[in-house]
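Researcher: We plan to redesign the surface later, but first we want a full-length starting point. Tokens attached.
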């Protein structure tokens, strides 16, 4: 049998702000172009899942409203599976509202306390001023990422996790400490919509390689012709950084 990876897409119908589903398309397309098949399961409200069945978990962003509505469902078992996945080193990509949901809590700007799953050591507090706009950051592996952020939540990382990267332009986690996103084992949390992966092919391949190497340790992904992806990436990069 050929190579295959399985992706769990959490709340695909509820958390899909600014086309976050495009991340799933980028992941599957970049596998298909290398002859590796993918299976994507939609894990909607009311549906349970077993983290052991998957190589990659993905959760997109949403508004405060959706995050509130989903909280009850999250606590009916998905929270435990997500924690298990995180602790066992599975690859997970979480965007904005989905990223916030992995932390301890999110206190919204209007004072509502949403207790989250605490899979990772951070918390988020909503502020009046939103961080909105195109932004860029660099991961500790040296991967430059461009994207679009729009959040009132300011995220503060605890000592048990690392930031995903350093902000080059924009707000990032909180607009104060110069960091963006979270990294813990193989979990990647970011404020970047866009969707983020199509125009950051190096970041997409980093996630795929990390996931695939858990099954096929010696695997190296073949390079692809990324002319179109890099044109999109570089256009935004130059607009932001060459001012
Ligand atoms: N509701 C969150 C905030 O405003 C997340 C928004 C988002 O996913 N773009 O901070």
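Model: Full-length starting sequence:
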């Amino acid at each position: 049998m050929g190579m295959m990876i399985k992706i769990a897409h959490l709340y695909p119908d509820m958390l899909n702000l600014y086309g976050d589903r495009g991340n799933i398309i980028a992941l599957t397309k970049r596998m298909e172009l290398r002859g590796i098949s993918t299976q994507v399961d939609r894990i909607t409200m009311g549906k349970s899942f077993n983290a052991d069945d998957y190589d990659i978990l993905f959760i997109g962003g949403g508004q405060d409203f959706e995050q509130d509505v989903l909280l009850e469902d999250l606590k009916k078992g998905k929270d435990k599976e997500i924690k298990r996945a995180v602790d066992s080193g599975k690859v997970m990509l979480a965007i904005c509202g989905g990223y916030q949901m992995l932390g301890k809590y999110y206190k919204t700007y209007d004072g509502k306390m949403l207790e989250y799953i605490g899979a990772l050591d951070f918390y988020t507090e909503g502020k009046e001023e939103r961080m909105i706009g195109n932004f860029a950051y660099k991961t500790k592996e040296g991967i430059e990422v461009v994207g679009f952020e729009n959040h009132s939540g300011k995220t503060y990382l605890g000592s048990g996790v690392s930031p995903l990267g350093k902000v080059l332009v924009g707000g990032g986690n909180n607009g104060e400490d110069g960091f963006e996103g979270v990294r813990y084992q193989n979990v990647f949390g970011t404020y970047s919509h866009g969707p983020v992966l199509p125009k950051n092919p190096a970041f997409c391949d980093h996630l795929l390689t990390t996931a695939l190497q858990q099954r096929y340790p010696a695997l190296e992904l073949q390079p692809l012709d990324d002319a179109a992806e890099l044109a999109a990436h570089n256009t935004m990069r130059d607009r932001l950084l060459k001012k």
